[in-house]
Design brief:
Blueprint: H1 3-37, E1 41-47, H2 51-67, E2 73-80, E3 90-94, H3 102-105, H4 107-113, E4 123-127, E5 131-133, E6 145-148, E7 183-187, H5 188-207, H6 216-226, E8 231-233, E9 239-240, E10 251-253, H7 261-264, H8 272-291
Parallel strand pairs: 1-2, 1-4, 2-3, 6-8, 9-10
Antiparallel strand pairs: 4-7, 5-10, 6-7
Helix pairs in contact: 4-5, 5-6, 5-8
């Protein structure tokens, strides 16, 4: 090959490379821009019965307004029996305090009862009131079904429900991780499916006079074992306050509130079967009044 032919060949390769790079770069730019222009409506659901939990929820929402899905429209839904001035875009829905563990365990039923309020939401996420957003949480959490690895059992045997009387019962080999009940979500369709099935299972347990070992979290893990999450978030999305870790926390569970939880939580005065009977009675009374 002559020298001028060689340089012509090299020049053609360079030209092709430059144009190829420019094409892919511009394509990526426009794809990224298109993705950024897509705006979703996201609902953040918070159980906050009792004045102290409502105050905690207010702090959590204020932190979410700084860090949570800033490129999207976020609506906050707070389920409470108390009153307080809450941040903008917050909808307050009445939920009486039922006592521990029902306030937490029956959140699926509460979400399901108010499901018509979520019709405009593309995504729904449940978040504990005593959490705090400390870093940006963005589009990486948006998926069909989203679960968060529990930080406390990251290096321990999984704490699934082992009693076969419970509908949450499962062998540890059936699950890939132990997930936290403090933060999870998904598309509106998948979230509503999750809470509907989980609540049906809880009602069966209550009729048997049984409560799963970790309440709603046990049923959540059972659901995720047979309906694998599309997105699995690391423990940085449910980091325990004051714990040392190799990762940078994004969402913190406030352990500073733990010492007050026995005062914040009103313990229920009835057993699971009594609760279930009362639940059926209230549903019957509601249906009867609707027929009148």
């Amino acid at each position: 090959m002559k020298l001028n032919q060689y340089f012509s060949f090299i020049l053609s390769i360079l030209i092709i490379s430059i144009f190829s790079w420019a094409f892919y770069t511009s394509s990526g730019f426009f794809l990224q821009k298109e993705k950024q222009q897509k705006t979703y409506t996201i609902g953040l659901l918070v159980m906050a019965t009792g004045q102290q939990y409502l105050e905690a929820a207010k702090r959590m929402i204020e932190s979410a307004q700084v860090h949570f899905c800033k490129n999207h429209k976020v609506n906050y839904f707070v389920f409470t029996d108390s009153t307080i001035d809450l941040p903008r875009n917050t909808v307050t829905l009445y939920q009486k305090q039922m006592g521990w563990p029902y306030d937490s365990m029956m959140r699926f039923a509460t979400y399901h009862k108010y499901r018509d309020h979520f019709k405009e939401c593309d995504y729904l996420f449940s978040c504990d009131a005593d959490m705090l957003f400390v870093d940006d949480v963005d589009d990486e959490i948006l998926g069909d079904l989203v679960a968060t690895i529990h930080p406390q059992v990251r290096f321990r045997p999984r704490g699934y429900e082992h009693n076969p009387i419970s509908t949450a019962h499962m062998h540890r080999a059936h699950g890939t991780h132990y997930f936290a009940g403090a933060f999870y979500g998904g598309t509106q369709k998948e979230f509503l499916k999750l809470i509907s099935i989980a609540q049906e299972n809880i009602n069966i347990d209550l009729a048997r006079g049984y409560i799963a070992r970790v309440n709603d979290e046990s049923h959540l893990n059972h659901y995720f074992a047979y309906n694998r999450p599309k997105i699995i978030l690391g423990p940085e999305y449910c980091h325990f306050e004051h714990w040392k870790s190799p990762y940078k926390p994004k969402l913190v569970a406030l352990s500073s509130l733990d010492v007050n939880k026995r005062f914040m939580r009103k313990k229920a005065s009835y057993n699971p079967l009594e609760y279930y009977v009362n639940l059926l009675k209230s549903e019957f009374d509601a249906n009867s009044s609707n027929r009148i």
